[in-house]
Amino acid sequence: MTPSDDRRARTRARLQAAALELFEQHGYDATTVAQVARAAGVTEMTFYRHFGSKEQVVVDDPSDPLIVAAVADQPPDLPPLVRAARGVRLAWRRLPITDDAPVRTRISLAARTPSLLPVMRASTAATEEGVAARLVADGTAPHEAAVAAAAVMAALMAGLVRWAGDDDASLADVVERTLDVVEAIS
Amino acid sequence: MTPSDDRRARTRARLQAAALELFEQHGYDATTVAQVARAAGVTEMTFYRHFGSKEQVVVDDPSDPLIVAAVADQPPDLPPLVRAARGVRLAWRRLPITDDAPVRTRISLAARTPSLLPVMRASTAATEEGVAARLVADGTAPHEAAVAAAAVMAALMAGLVRWAGDDDASLADVVERTLDVVEAIS
DNA sequence: GGCATCGATGTTAGTGACTAACATTTGAGA
DNA sequence: TCTCAAATGTTAGTCACTAACATCGATGCC
User: Fold this and answer.
1) Nucleotide nearest to A7 (CA to C1')
2) CB contact set of B144 (below 8 Å; sequence gap of 6+)
């Protein structure tokens, strides 16, 4: 079907779908990679050709260039933490999220799986470095930049994790509220 | 020797020493648990009786009650982020660090080992929860508390990791400077 | 001293994540 | 149809980690 839809892409999609479904059903730890592969009609080896690890299926880290760009748009004379926070806020507003559910599902799965939490937290590493680099490029000292970026991204993740757990506000609202904390609008 | 020095404690110490030395020499990933155990004159099984995982030897997480207490000492009418940051700052001042070197060695090892970074970041989880709980107890909303605690602890870790990497300031100075960023003393 | 006891360690045998090397299949163009 | 290369399969490992049961070693009691 769809001739040039790239076999690879379809296999990857099948693997990811199968994985999330099985994880949701039986739990992450109780599900083996072999089971996931089998459910996707494929070998374990193939799984690892598409995802570097079992964890990667749940948390993908596509260093968000939108966030970095939005940080760049903030006035450079703001304190680094505020600049980073406002950048993330702007990026989120620019990004039209049509449906909260998928985001919530994945974060929620990670949140309730102890072995996944660290990975989830680390999943923003690339974006964090991008933000820090941007701050440095605009004159912030490296140390201050790294700290500010780490604080903002950690805050964001913490907010999302809490939201996925038991909050029933909209995703957009949660992000705004989370960043308010960082900008210390007491 | 030292009759009642508890065999268990000595074994644990030997294991930890052997581990850190081997990790330092050959790298974390290239060192197997079996090698560590052997170097400590003990079995792999015994290693796991003392440390829950290979990672735990490097990053121990003793939920710092000092920090939580110090947060409690901050005026409750401050914005949560500032309150948390000042708490951490105070705790660090109260804590007399005699020698930076050991701290630096461990953080540095974790920093230059990709597979350890997530764990290192997660190693403050217990403290983070403690701080959040303290904030909630004093009237902060749970969401805001969780976010503030996460931001501050992440900032602290980021500062330490950078310091261990290439900064040669004193540990105390780095902590102060790191927290300055969070308190947005522009 | 001899003996019981219990914690610390050893042994054995596994599971499951991940990797390397080589073989096979599948699909698209010549 | 033939060809080539990418995608997948096969096989055979290593290593982190666990469970069950066996042994050892110091300590207290007689």
Assistant:
1) D7
2) A177, A181, B80, B135
Nucleotides of chain C in contact with protein CB (under 7 A) are 7-12, 16-21, 27-28
Distances (CA, A) of B99 to A120, B163, B171: 33, 15, 9
- How does pLDDT run across A97-132, given as a tens digit for each residue? 888 888 898 999 999 999 999 999 889 999 999 999
How far CA A14 is from CA of A41, A94, B17, in Å, comes to 9, 30, 46
Express each pLDDT in A128-149 by its tens digit. Answer: 999 999 999 999 999 999 999 9
Residues in CB range of A2: below 8 A, 6 or more apart: none
| Side-chain-facing half-sphere of A170: CA atoms under 13 Å | 9
Under a CB-based contact definition with an 8 Å cutoff, are residues A85 and A152 in contact? yes
Counting beta carbons within 10 angstroms of the beta carbon of residue A14, is it exposed (0 to 12), middle (13 to 18) or buried (19 or more)?
middle
Q: How many beta carbons lie within 10 A of that of residue A34, not counting itself?
A: 11
- Å between CA of B6 and C1' of D29: 21
Angstrom distance (rounded) from CA B111 to CA B158 = 10
Tokens in use for A48? 């690892």
CA of A7 to C1' of D10 (A): 21
Contact call for residues B155 and B178 (beta carbons, < 8 A): yes
Low-confidence stretches of chain B (pLDDT beneath 50): 1-4
pTM (two decimals): 0.91
B75 CB neighbours in chain A (<8 A) are: none
